[in-house]
Design goal:
The protein is of the alpha+beta class and 160 residues long. Helices cover 16% and strands 31% of the residues. The chain folds into 2 domains: 1-32, no CATH class; 33-61 and 88-159, no CATH class. It has 2 helices and 12 strands. The strands form 4 sheets. Strands 7-10-11-12 form a 4-stranded mixed beta sheet, sandwiched between helices. Strands 1-2-3 form a 3-stranded antiparallel beta sheet, with no helix packed on it. A 3-stranded mixed beta sheet has the order 4-9-8, with no helix packed on it. Strand 1 (6-7) and strand 2 form a beta hairpin. The longest helix is centred in the first third of the chain and has 14 residues, at 44-57. The chain is elongated.
Length: 160
């Protein structure tokens, strides 16, 4: 505790209180985020997919990541259509769950599975958007989370 701060589950700094009768910790400040929207996914398969994607995105051998989809023709042929590809000067950093939280003005937040942004830009731009990845295994995001993701998609955030 002398060299690094001690944090509680809300990411608040806590300090020890020297009290002979009841030694305890005291929180310094308030939680950075308010109420979490949605529930935590508690499924090992889901967690494995999130970890796999996160590790792939952070692989040092990968220079850039592109997001694409396939466009199918009537004759069942297809071609790849790139949705987003970072510019050459981009330096995307990837964050997972607790470190990817996004706060909103009404004192709530969402916690996407994976979030990414250009480390060289403070705020998202059309050429340097923030990326949100939600791993869908058994059910779609709850309505309030979906509404927040839709809201973000209108402000230079790509939601996948």
């Amino acid at each position: 505790m002398k060299e690094e701060p001690l944090l509680n589950e809300d990411d608040c700094i806590v300090v020890p209180v020297r009290n002979e009768i009841t030694p305890h910790f005291r929180r310094v400040g308030n939680p950075s985020f308010g109420k979490r929207l949605g529930r935590a996914e508690d499924n090992p398969t889901h967690d494995n997919y999130v970890n796999y994607l996160y590790d792939e995105l952070n692989d040092k051998n990968i220079e850039a990541v592109k997001f694409s989809t396939y466009v199918f023709a009537e004759d069942r042929t297809y071609e790849e259509q790139v949705i987003f590809s970072p510019l050459k000067d981009s330096d995307f950093g990837w964050y997972k769950e607790k470190d990817a939280r996004i706060a909103f003005h009404e004192d709530s937040y969402i916690q996407p599975d994976i979030g990414g942004r250009d480390r060289n830009k403070f705020f998202p731009r059309s050429a340097y958007p923030n990326i949100i990845i939600e791993v869908i295994r058994t059910h779609y995001p709850e309505r309030d989370i979906f509404q927040k993701l839709l809201e973000l998609s209108k402000t230079n955030h790509h939601v996948y």
